[in-house]
Amino acid sequence: MVLPKLVYENLPYLYFLASGGLLVLGDEWALIFSAGIFYAVACIVLVSRSAHRRLDKHKANSIQYLFPELIYEYLPYTYAAIGIFVLMSTVNPFYQFAAFTLLILALRNLLCRKNNRTKSPSLF
What we know:
- The chain crosses the membrane at residues 29-49, 70-88, 94-111.
- Keywords: Membrane, Transmembrane, Transmembrane helix.
- By secondary structure, the chain is an all-alpha fold.
- The chain has 2 domains: 1-54; 65-117.
- 77% of the residues lie in helices and 0% in strands.
- α1 (5-25) packs antiparallel against α2, α2 (29-53) packs antiparallel against α4 and α4 (69-89) runs antiparallel to α5 (93-117).
- The longest helix is centred in the N-terminal third of the chain and has 25 residues, at 29-53.
- It is globular, with a radius of gyration of 17 Å.
C-alpha cells in the first residue's frame, strides 16, 4: 500500500495530534496509555526517517555521544513529553516555567539536529 506523499510526510504529526487530543479528552488511564502509544509511534517514525535521510552519515560514526545513540535520538522527545505532562498536571508557576523551558530545549535540539543533518557534506 502506497500513501500519497502529503499523507505520508504528515502522518507522524497526525499521531502527535491524536496523542494531544486523547490527553485533552480525559484523565482515565486508557486515554493516557493510548496517548502515550501515539506519541511513541510518532517519535519512532520521525527518528527512523531521520536516520534514513541523513546527509551527514559520514560524520555519524566519528561522533562520540555523551549518551548511547539510541537515547540521544529520543532525548528531545522525552524532554517534550515531560514538559507537556508537567504543564498539564500542575498549576505551580515554578514547575510550569521549568516545563516550558524543557519544551524550548526540546524544540531547539530538534531544529539544530534537523539543520545539521540536512546539510550536504562539505570539505570543511
